[in-house]
Design brief:
156 residues; mainly alpha
C-alpha cells in the first residue's frame, strides 16, 4: 500500500511539472510581445485549473483523492464558488478589452504582429477560461458520483 501512495504522489508531481511546462509554453509568446500583461495571474489560473480538473475528471481513480471522502466533499463544495470566480475573471478580461480596446496592451507592436498577438491572446484566454469554467461543474458532478460509488459500491 505504501508503494502505491508513493507512485500516486510521483505521478501527481509529474502532472504538475507537465502543467508548469504548458503554462510556460502558452505564456512565452505573450511575454515576448507584451510590455505589460495585466491578466497574468488569471491566465495562469485558467490554464492550471483546466488541466488539473480535467485530469481529475478522467483519472480520479488513479489519484490520491480516490478514497478520500472528506476531501472529495470539500472539493465538491468548493467547485461552486470556484466556478463563479472563474466566470468573473473571464468577464473582467472581456470587459477590459471591450472598454479599453487592445491599444494600451499591444499599441507598441507593428501592425502585423499586433493583430497576431491580439488574436492569440483572445483565443488563448477564451479557450482556457471557458474550459476551466466548464470543467469545474463537471468535476463537481464527477466527485458526487465518486462519493456515491465509494459509499455504496466500494469503487471510485
Amino acid at each position: 500500500m505504501e508503494r502505491q501512495n508513493q507512485v500516486k504522489l510521483l505521478l501527481e508531481l509529474i502532472w504538475w511539472l507537465f502543467t508548469a511546462a504548458i503554462v510556460w509554453a502558452v505564456l512565452t509568446p505573450v511575454y515576448k510581445a507584451m510590455y505589460v500583461w495585466p491578466f497574468h495571474t488569471r491566465n495562469i489560473v485558467f490554464i492550471v485549473v483546466l488541466i488539473t480538473i480535467t485530469r481529475y475528471v478522467f483519472l480520479l481513480k488513479h489519484t490520491f483523492l480516490a478514497k478520500q471522502q472528506v476531501l472529495k466533499i470539500a472539493l465538491l463544495l468548493l467547485m461552486f464558488p470556484v466556478t463563479f470566480l472563474l466566470i468573473d475573471s473571464l468577464n473582467d478580461f472581456i470587459v477590459y478589452i471591450e472598454d479599453q480596446t487592445w491599444e494600451p496592451l499591444t499599441g507598441h507592436l507593428p501592425l502585423q504582429e499586433k493583430q497576431e498577438t491580439e488574436k492569440y491572446l483572445w483565443n488563448e484566454m477564451l479557450f482556457f477560461g471557458v474550459g476551466s469554467i466548464v470543467s469545474a461543474p463537471v468535476f463537481a458532478i464527477r466527485l458526487m458520483m465518486s462519493i456515491w460509488r465509494t459509499r455504496n459500491r466500494g469503487t471510485v
